[in-house]
Write a structure and sequence with these properties.
Layout: E1 3-5, E2 15-16, E3 24-27, E4 33-38, E5 45-53, E6 59-61, E7 66-72, E8 81-83, E9 88-91, E10 100-104, E11 111-115, E12 123-127, E13 140-148
Antiparallel strand pairs: 1-6, 2-3, 3-13, 4-5, 5-10, 7-9, 7-13, 8-10, 11-12
Length: about 180
């Protein structure tokens, strides 16, 4: 399958880490953009909604019956990050920039209790971002996996075919 890539300044094409790799690594082309509520001092945060990175990657698969999944890289286990939407999905008709958003996973050493000098407010918890535990500009931050898109037709029926599992839910097929 051919994938069209929009020409932009300083373009770095996605690359496979090995010949048999399923994913194509993409890099951060921006510094981390922290989106949240900063504390008054600016160093700590009251909350972090997400940390975002630009990639300067704009794609259009030549086959309209395909889509792109954005997976975390295995290196994410070294960081205090988690891909915000678990696995991203870019449909064949999406042509905007691939942006990666991550949740920051607070660690006890990141947190502080701030005592407020007010009888009403009391205290609040704030956190800092451990900059050694997040991606930086130029780091490989995610991988793209290209897959075929299956079109389905839904049919309403009175009953479904019986199976051994039936309507058994989470963990019902285990011992």
């Amino acid at each position: 399958m051919k994938v069209y890539v929009k020409k932009v300044e300083n373009l770095t094409l996605p690359k496979k880490g090995s010949d048999l790799a399923a994913g194509y690594d993409i890099i951060a082309t921006s510094d981390p953009q922290i989106v949240g509520t900063p504390s008054e001092c600016g160093f700590f945060w009251k909350s972090i909604d997400y940390i975002q990175y630009d990639t300067d990657i704009y794609l259009s698969p030549s086959c309209i019956m395909s889509h792109v999944l954005i997976h975390p890289r295995s290196s994410i286990s070294k960081y205090n990050l988690m891909l915000k939407n678990g696995i991203g999905l870019a449909d064949a008709d999406y042509t905007g920039m691939y942006i990666c958003k991550f949740s920051y996973c607070w660690q006890p050493k990141d947190l502080q209790i701030k005592f407020l000098y007010s009888r009403v407010l009391g205290r609040e918890i704030q956190g800092k971002v451990d900059t050694e535990k997040i991606y930086k500009k130029g780091d490989k931050i995610a991988q793209l996996v290209f897959e075929p898109t299956t079109q389905v037709e839904f049919e309403i029926v009175d009953e479904l075919t019986e199976t051994n599992r039936g309507a058994g839910g989470f963990g019902s097929s285990g011992v």
